[in-house]
Amino acid sequence: MSAGKSSSNKSASTLASGDLWPALSCQAFEQTRYLLHMVLQAVGKLKLAGPFQAQWAEVPLWLGARGLTTGPIPYAGGVYEVRADFVSHELQWLTSSGGSGQLPLGPTSVATLVDTFLDRLRRAGIDASITLIPQEVSNPIPFDEDKQERPYDRDMANAWWRILLSTQRVMQIFQGRFTGKTQPIGLMWGTFDIRVPFYNGKPASPAPNADFIRRNAMNAELMEMGWWSGDPSYPRPAFYSFTYPQPQGIETAKIGPSAARWDAGLGEFLLDYDDLRQSANPDGHLLAFLESTYNAGAAAAGWNSALLGSGRPE
């Protein structure tokens, strides 16, 4: 594994840019995104050793000042934590008994990176048993069989993480207004999007053909909003919002900002990332998207209007 090198040679000052909404091309990011998606799936699967929480509330990866973290995971020696650092570009693990280690992120194959990472955890006394088949992706290749060499662009990985940070910052403002059940904002490593869900307290029936993941995720009425970096099925980074079950007529609702729209193929509202970052007020436009699509879903599905307040104590 070419662990210490990157396919980008830009300076550290570029990585530390103050651009809160950096440019990110789905096509240029695709190979780095794939490598990151698979290794973060392997990291995320470690969290499944903990107790289940309703609607998979326990599984996301949490954002931190330098990347993503699992948070504490129990093991025989106490707890451990895995971090993906997108400033120094490495996987790190720390244990409550004082142990630690790191593995550089760089151009390599999924098989090499995941195998090396899991082996290092085992050497540290951590039970790193996970299923090696990726979740929620088309045509999944088991990690240990995915031997194609992939590039790793440090600048794009860093930009992707900074977009997650900015998205979370704005989402938290809107989430603070919601008085019903919600969950901490985090990266869903299966679908590779950052999301925030809102629940109205009513049960829902998953689709008849829903798999195990969906049966335990879509068993309550909800609205979900988030951002993902795009993939071959939709090759543009975009913010999304949907209501489940999908209420009749929601696609005709008026939403903002003007660039936002209903996508019939995906069955959700979309706001392309480039439209937002090129606007004069990205934060304000994202808040408008969150609020207007929430209002559209709440009106069409008959949610209690009292669930959304001002967010500020009187």
Description:
With 314 residues, the chain is α+β, with helices and mostly antiparallel strands. The protein folds into two domains: 25-152; 155-304, no CATH class. 28% of the residues lie in helices and 23% in strands. The protein contains seven helices and 15 strands. The strands form three sheets. Strands 9, 10, 11, 12, 13, 14 and 15 form a seven-stranded antiparallel β-sheet that branches. Strands 1, 2, 3, 4, 5 and 6 form a six-stranded antiparallel β-sheet that branches. It has a two-stranded antiparallel ribbon with strand order 7-8. Helix 4 crosses helix 7. It is globular and about 55 Å long. The N and C termini lie far apart (57 Å). The model is unreliable at 1-17 (pLDDT under 50).
Brief summary of the model shown:
The protein has 2 domains: about 25-150; about 155-305, no CATH class. About 30% of the residues lie in helices and about 25% in strands. The protein has helices spanning about 10-15, 25-45, 110-125, 155-175, 210-215, 275, 280-300; strands at about 60-65, 65-70, 75, 80-85, 90-95, 100-105, 110, 150, 180, 185-190, 195-205, 220-230, 240-245, 260-265, 270.
Distance between the termini: 57 Å
Helix-strand makeup class: alpha+beta
Give the C-alpha Rg: 20 Å
Measured as a percent range, the helix fraction is 25-40%
Please tell me the total number of domains: 2
Tally of DSSP helical segments: 7
Uncertain stretches of 5 or more adjacent residues: 1-17
Report the sheet-strand fraction.
15-25%
SS elements, strand count = 15
Query: If you average the pLDDT, what whole number results?
Result: 92
Q: What sort of overall outline do the alpha carbons produce when their principal axes are compared?
A: globular
| Topology as a string of helices (H) and strands (E) | HHEEEEEEEHEHEEEHEEEEHH
What is the makeup of the main sheet? 7 strands, antiparallel
